[in-house]
Amino acid sequence: MQEQPEHAVTPGLTARVELTVTDADTAHAVGSGDVPVLGTPRVLALAEAATVAATATRIQPGSTTVGVRVELEHLAATPVGRTVVAQARLAKVDGRRLLFEVSVTDGGEPVAEGRVERVLVDRQRFVERASRAS
To answer: How is the chain split into domains, by residue range?
Structure first.
């Protein structure tokens, strides 16, 4: 019987996640400003959701990925009611390190772009270590 690799995550994996902006997603609501437009923390959360979705079906049971580094440029304001689309593409795999290129658009127009780095970990061990650190 052939042993499975630690993970079957390869460059080129992609995912897309959508969000219709509500009052709860605004900079004012999330505490990152006082304007009623899509807040940067929500833009980042959406981009990260796309990175998680890109690998979700390709990692071994019991494994997960955790974010370790983000580089994000928020380029345009998005008002309540608009739908934004986050796309992630796995650009590079270096051992357990996964580097994604991410973009967020509104009607095809750029809202944000950047890179997200995640690390493949054993979910149970990670949670246990985090609990001990508290």
So the answer is: 14-133
Residue count of the chain: 134
Q: Is 48 a catalytic residue?
A: yes
| pLDDT of 6 above 70 | no
83 is catalytic: no
Q: Catalytic pick from 48, 51, 55, 64?
A: 48
Query: Which residue ranges make up the annotated binding site for substrate?
Result: 67, 118
Q: Is 7 among the residues known to form the active site?
A: no
CATH code of 14-133, in short, is: 3.10.129.10
Neighbours of 98 (CB within 10 A): 26
> What global pTM score does this model have?
0.91
What count of other Cβ atoms lies within 10 Å of the Cβ of residue 22? 12
How many Å apart are CA 63 and CA 68, to the nearest integer? 16
